[in-house]
Amino acid sequence: MDLICYLHPGWRPLIRPAPARRDWMDRTPESFAYRCLPLNIANAHGWELLNPCAFDACWNGETDTGAVTIRAQADGSVASHATSLFGQGILTFHIPGIFRTPPGWNLWVGGSPNRPKDGIHPLTGIVETDWSPFTFTMNWRFTRPNHWIHFEAGEPICFFFPVQRALLDDVEPVMAPIDAEPDLLNRFQEWSRGRDSFVLQMADQPPPAPADRWQKHYYRGVDMSGKEQVADHRTRLRLKPFDVSAVPDLPESVATVSSVGSAAPNQAAQQNTPQSQSRLDLRKREWLLDTLERLRTLSPQYQDIQRRAALSSDEFLDRYYAANRPVILTGEMSAWPALAKWTPTYLKRAVGNVEAMSALHPDMGFPDKFLTRDGEHPNGTIRIGPAGSLTSLRYDLANNLIAQVVGRSRLLVLPAAEVGKLYNHQHVFSEIADIEDPTLPLSRFPQLADANFTEVTLMPGEMLFMPVAWWHQVRSIDFSVTVSYTNFRWPNDAGRSFPVP
Q1: Adjacent-strand bridge partners of 158
Q2: Do 471 and 419 meet the contact criterion of CB atoms below 8 Å apart?
Q3: pLDDT tens, 459-470?
Q4: Backbone phi, psi, residue 139, to 5°
Q5: How far apart are CA 220 and CA 227, in angstroms?
Q6: Residue 263 above 50 pLDDT?
Q7: Mean pLDDT throughout 181-193?
Q8: Distances in whole angstroms, Cα of residue 413 to Cα of each of 41, 149, 220, 447
Q9: Beta strand spans in 352-446 (E)
Q10: Which pLDDT band, with edges at 50, 70 and 90, does 259 fall under?
């Protein structure tokens, strides 16, 4: 759906997709507040309008419009942005834009969720933006008289997201005994027993790793057995920024905050030192990569990672291998005996130790359409891991074909263009060990909030083509066995000239 912000000449709204991070959450011990997935999703569930210039305000407790005093900072005037318009201890922000939503859709407008401000509280409204030719205001009500409030430049003052107007009218709320859903009752009781056992274990033998001190079932979208419950479970939101290309006269600060959500207005330019020039060069390169990626995604075939059956060698080469785009191949492993034979018991008996891994090769087929039997590892590299095992965020220096033989793997996949957001300071690895870890200190990795990844669940019998330089994090949903190949029929030596310091 489209969400349009129409700008009258002179209007300069500072808008960004709302980030999930909050300062107070960063300050909780081990950032434990980020373990609450509903909190994280709510934080990022819309767009934020930012305050254009810093000011202080105070309310004397009276009800008239003169009861609020506003003092602008030296860097700008707030007269056209913040004012005392209604009295009653209310501070009003004028929103410089006319928003338009599709028919039947409103905008929910209020303060950023889970971002309290001492002495003042944001008011909430629902605006019919599918027809209204009017601007609206964002209002905050003082909660304490004679207390000065400070608003920083670049601080969020308004939060909004679309809601369907008639949806609540059609909701039929009812209450029912849980016995009416025996499966739900069983799974709830299993969770309750597991939670009680976990709490006792944490009291008696707390694990040293913070990530092991909480249960992650809801966060990962699985029940107590580890079974995935819905295909579209979200651990984060990836809202698009407002496209400013149709308004070419917007100043750079507006375009920057609209596109990446990180720059505040009135920032001083950095001096042109060798270090700043190096950073500028990197930003230019990252901008170019991101621009090229945006152009590629204009084609519907590149907007998601496709599942393709009976793909020919030529089409695979033309559409994916040469185009540096991932694809999931289905049906290519249907004749492999390993799909049925490779249970943990069988593997333990057949392998026994790493040196005997070659005993498994007869159980595998070979995708001749895509691979050659030449090369250092013609039979691929076998990886075996328990449920929950993690391969941290990284990219490879060659194209890979990942065959899922046993169990399921969940991958978070990002194009090479996202490198500027992934803190790649260590060869092919990110500094971020687990981008889904809710205890991750987002204050250290603020650019991660803008990273655009695709979630893929790789099923037994499926192969994923992972192009060179594409980032991926892999977590086993079940006991998992994969085989990785790099011996493609086409040149695959991209990593030979990789610059190593």
Answers
A1: 49
A2: yes
A3: 999 999 999 999
A4: -120, 140
A5: 10
A6: no
A7: 91
A8: 20, 43, 16, 16
A9: 381-385, 390-394, 400-406, 409-414
A10: very low
For residues 338-348, give the mean pLDDT: 90
**Residue among 142, 75, 79, 156 nearest 113 (CA):** 156
Q: Please give the Cα distance from 258 to 97 (Å, whole number).
A: 14
Residue 241 near residue 17 (C-beta atoms within 8 A): yes
If you write DSSP's letter for every residue of 217-229 in order, what string do you get?
Answer: HHHHTB-TT--B-
Strand intervals (E) in 143-264: 149-151, 156-164
Q: What is the mean pLDDT of residues 330-354?
A: 86
pLDDT for 417 equals 87
N residues, the chain: 501
Evaluated on CA atoms 304, 310, 313, 315, the torsion sign reads: negative
What torsion, rounded to 10 degrees, do the Cα atoms 472, 478, 484, 489 define?
-90
Residue 248: what pLDDT? 75
Distance (Å, rounded) from C-alpha 210 to C-alpha 216?
Answer: 12
Give the neighbor-by-neighbor strand order of the sheet with 149-151.
68-72, 55-59, 149-151
User: How many whole angstroms separate alpha carbon 436 and alpha carbon 434?
Assistant: 5
Specify the pLDDT at position 123: 97
Q: Cα angle at 416 between 413 and 417, to 5 degrees?
A: 110
Q: Please state which of the ranges 56-60, 182-186, 359-363, 467-471 shows the lowest mean pLDDT.
A: 359-363
């695979």: which residue's tokens? 316
Cβ atoms 381, 390 nearer than 8 A: no
pLDDT of 430:
93
Residue with tokens 């859709």: 105
Strand partners for 138: 93
User: Both tokens of residue 500?
Assistant: 């190593």
Contacts of 484 (CB under 8 A, 6+ apart): 380, 381, 383, 400, 401, 402, 403
Half-sphere exposure (Cβ direction) of 64: Cα atoms closer than 13 Å: 2
The structure tokens listed for 408 are 């399921």
Cα–Cα distances in Å, from 138 out to 47, 92, 94, 252?
Answer: 14, 6, 7, 25
Predicted confidence at residue 266, as pLDDT, reads: 44
* pLDDT band, very low/low/confident/very high, at 499 (cuts 50, 70, 90): low
Average pLDDT in the 374-386 region? 84
Q: What is the pTM of this model?
A: 0.59
As a whole number of angstroms, the distance between CA 263 and CA 329 comes to 41
Cα–Cα distance, 199 to 202 (Å, whole number): 5
Which residue has 């892999």 as its token pair?
474
Task: Please state, in angstroms and rounded to a whole number, the distance separating the CA atoms of residues 96 and 82.
Answer: 12
